[in-house]
Amino acid sequence: MEIDEAREVRTTCPYCGVGCGVLAKVAADGQVSVRGDPDHPANFGRLCSKGSALAETIDLDGRLLYPEIHDRRAGWDEALDLVASTFSQTIAEHGPDAVAFYVSGQLLTEDYYVANKLMKGFVGSANIDTNSRLCMASSVAGHRRAFGSDTVPGTYEDLELADLIVLVGSNLAWCHPVLYQRIVAAREKRPEMKIVLVDPRRTMTADIADMHLAIAPDGDVALFTGLLAYLGQHNALDRAYITAHTTGFGQALFAASALDLASVAAATGLTEDELGRFYSLFAATSKTVTVYSQGVNQSSSGTDKVNAIINCHLATGRVGRPGAGPFSVTGQPNAMGGREVGGMANMLAAHMEIENPEHRKRVQRFWTAPAIAERPGLKAVEMFQAVADGRIKALWIMATNPVDSMPDADAVEAAIKACPFVVVSDVLARTDTVRHAHIRLPAAAWGEKDGTVTNSERRISRQRAFLDLPGEARPDWQIVAEVGKRMGFGEAFSHATPSEVFAEHAALSGFENDGARDFDIGAYAGVDAEGYEELAPFQWPAPGPVQAGRQPEEGGQAGHRPSSIRFFADGNFYTPDRKARFITIRPTVETRTSPDYPLILNTGRIRDHWHTMTRTGKSPRLSQHIAEPFVEIHPADAQRFGIGDADIVRVSSPRGDVLVRALVTARQRQGSLFAPMHWTDQFSAKGRLDALTAPLIDPVSGQPALKHVAARIEKFAAK
Ligand code: SF4
Prior knowledge:
719 residues, alpha/beta, Rossmann fold, Dimethylsulfoxide Reductase, domain 2, 4 domains, 7-stranded mixed β-sheet, 6-stranded mixed β-barrel, 16% strand, binds iron/sulfur cluster, metal-binding
């Protein structure tokens, strides 16, 4: 590769769903440096600690550089032939549902598109699901129930325009730091902006909150159902909007009205005074954005929580207006891109629905595919259960580490070990998952591949390569396409470049689009290699064709789109009658604790690590922030269980245990524990937190309840 010192490559951060623009440069000595892209509309030059440390995480230490078959180095042709022939044979003998792909929100949209096309249109199964299932599936399901489509109505700008931001189950300060910084900056300009944090823990985000509601775990449905009742009782409804643009209000309000303030207080663990102050603030503030994240999604009632929030916004007409709307922020860099191309077991490409025969016909026709999946496939937790009981006989895992990150991780590991044929394509040679693969395929890493990602405000940005591919690594889309060709589907997988994949994806989004679907970037269908290279960040739907070299709007890059595209401002939704649906919800109280496991363990992230630390674990700077795994415990619980600050403790559930350091703090709610999910046995003696979590899922979204695990804690005494 020629090194051009002056050349900075515009790319996108591979961590969270904020989707910050990054400028990366390779110096003459090969050193990489990064800085925030001042022109990117997500971050305007800002980067958080993780984004700033990207250059420290891209060395080749531990990389998988060559294909391997049963631990020996192999050539690509041999490895790909074996993958294709084994998948084909398994399908021939046991049917298409005997194979599965488990993919990742780390994949680029082009990777996702090709994998989804192969599985749904050519294998003929919908057994492709993603680790994004663990991240935002409840928001997808909630959007579809209320709006008739998986659409985030608002934009980041709405958070700056709002007079009230309600953050629910979202530690934005640590998990979406640049978005948090935008709010802080906006509040400095408009000190009258109010912020309410709804979270069992007093997280760093509480520092900017005017009100922190330390809600009981899973009390969110009661909180927002109670709010709906309050709005009805205090004449704070937008009756005209409800009548013109929604259905189901009467029933939803009737169910909510069964809750009086005392019962909401009991279910949420909040005082009636706290509830009254929050409810009156919400009722009085027309420009309100409710931001929600994993604390809402990762729950056995996650979809109901999402709809309880959306109900309150519909009741006040606060959807798709500047500074007002419900706003789901995604954890992963391309959870949204995966949704767009149907990289989930219950969706089709271009936001079409697998249950809709017309949509199935369209996608099949567009792909000229021999088959099309006719029913939803297995969602993540179910998929590994099917691996365990032998229904899945050939499994391909791409860019993710389920042995450490799936709930009930020991059972998942046992399932993968017992599976007759496991392929893993990954950047690293020996994660806890890669170790168990029969075939290992070296994938290109961030900085080495080209493609697109979509952030939480529907903004599609380019990831661009600035490094040579090391060893024999290849981009994921290309690996999957090669397998597709070898399975006999050559024509459909003959893309030569990621721009060709993107152009096909764009064409499908506009293909026979009758306006009943929200996702349309069809204007980009004709994008050529040059246009793709110059593609500037844009939000869907795309209003017109991209033009390479087009004059930038003020302060933007060439080809910029308007920065604030909102959905539903006109009150039209994607339901058959074009009206949004209120969902009738009755809060349920579920007790998972028991005398043996009397505490509720909440799992989550810390500021400077990402997922199972396969990348951030390489940066000593990032590890300085918090150097070891820990569990937060309230002082009263610490006293009850004889635990002192900094003691080594064993945290156990019926499925497993970890050894971590105790952090005694009143930030933690009494009766609950919090522990970060990042450490694995690679970084800590016994640190795989997901060995404890349960495969309990939301019945609508299939998302696991990773924030409500019955657990116990005891001081560790070495024998
Ligand atoms: Fe990357 Fe998210 Fe940090 Fe932005 S906020 S730099 S996308 S990790």
